[in-house]
Give the backbone structure.
Amino acid sequence: MGNNKTTWNIDPAHSAVNFKIKHLGIANVNGTFDKFQGSVESEYDDFNNAQVHFEIDADSINTKHAIRDTHLKSPFLFNTEKYPKILFDGRLEKKGDLYELGGELTIGSTMRPIILKAELTGSGKGMHNDSRAGFEVEGILNRTDFGLTWNIMTEAGNFVVGEAVKLHFDVELIQS
């Protein structure tokens, strides 16, 4: 197979970066990052050992609640003025029918390893005869591992914001 690497770029119009986190220990608050970009470099048609680079505009966080979003962007949490990007660099590894996406995630000044599960959801030709592939990516991270430690205890003894963040990305790639 030599060094025939193929580059695939994320199609933001057909992709989504979603997360959810517990509020008051009662229910989930859902959010998205509306602006992101990334690429996958693959030597093989099945994406095994593909290099993945992903960049999120931290200021594009959207929980459909303006006051909460302003707080999330503040120095108490993401500090988007100082740290405008959330970065991921890693590799897809085929594990049976699924994939493991392992790499380094950087939020703020903290870089840590993370492993996510990925599923190749399909591939084929797009409307303009371009080659496309889709992945669904899921995982959980602990926000305090990345220095996102702000919290308040309620009178009932629950924290306002949970620590576990569930991630769910739907990604459509276009071969460049």
